Amino acid sequence: MSEFFLIILAYFIGSISNAVWIGKRFFHIDIREYGSGNAGATNTFRVLGPRAGTVVMILDMLKGVVAVQLAHLLPYYNQPGHASQLMNFQLALGLAAVVGHIFPIWAEFRGGKGVATLFGMVLAIQPVVALCCVGVFILVLFLTRYVSLSSILAAIAFPLLILFIFREHAFVYQVFAILIALLVIFTHQKNIQRLLHGRENRVSLFKKRRSSSEQNHPDS
C-alpha cells in the first residue's frame, strides 16, 4: 500500500458529502439549493437547524480524523525517529480530505468550505491546539451567533497558537497553519462581505429550522 494510494483514499473519504446526504435522506432537499449553496456544516445550521448542523459538523470532522489516521497503515511511519515524516504525511492526507470535501467526486464536485474537516485533521495531529481553536469557535458563536465569523476567527487563532503559544518548531507545520488561516479567509470572502454590510444571517442555537421560503432567501 503506497502513499499515493492512501492520499487518493483520503480524498475519497473527504468527498463523502454528509450535508447533501442528510438533507436528501431526512429533509428531502438538496442543501446546495438553499441558503449559501454550500454543502457544509455552516449552511446546514442555517437551513436545517442546529441538530442537523451539529451532526454534519461532527461527521465532517471525522473525515479529517480518519484521513490522518491512514498514515499508520504504513509500517514506516510507525517506527521510532520518524515523527517529522509522520506529521508531513498526515498533513498531506488531511489536505487531501479537505480537497475532497470542497470538491467531492460523489456530489458533482460541489461541496463545502472544509473548516470542519480541517479541524478534524488538526484534532488528530495536535488535539490541544484543536481544542483551543474550538474554544474560540464556541465563544464567538455564543456571543455573535455567526458561524462564519466563528470559523474565521478560529482559523486565525490556529497559526497564532502554533507560533506564539505552543511554539511549534516544525517549519512545515508553521507554514501549514498560516496557509490554512489564509485558505479559510479566502473561502469565506462572501461571508466577510455580508458581515461588513450587516447582511450575514445569524444561526438560531435553540429554535427549529426555518421554512423553505426563508431558507432560500438570496442573502442567506
Sum this structure up briefly.
By secondary structure, the chain is an all-alpha fold. The protein has one domain (3-203). It contains 11 helices and no strands.
What does this structure look like?
- The longest helix has 20 residues, at 50-69.
- The radius of gyration is 17 Å and the shape is globular.
- By secondary structure, the protein is mostly helical.
- It has one domain.
- Helix content is 66%, strand content 0%.
- The chain starts with a helix and ends in a 5-residue tail after the last helix.
Please state the structural category.
mainly alpha
How is the main sheet built?
none
* Gyration radius, rounded: 17 Å
Spell out the helices and strands N to C.
HHHHHHHHHHH
What's the mean pLDDT score?
Answer: 89
- According to DSSP, the number of beta strands is 0
Q: Total number of helical segments?
A: 11
Note the gap between the termini. Answer: 44 Å
Strand content: under 5%
Pathway: Lipid metabolism; phospholipid metabolism
Membrane topology: Multi-pass membrane protein
Subunit structure: Probably interacts with PlsX.
Main location: membrane
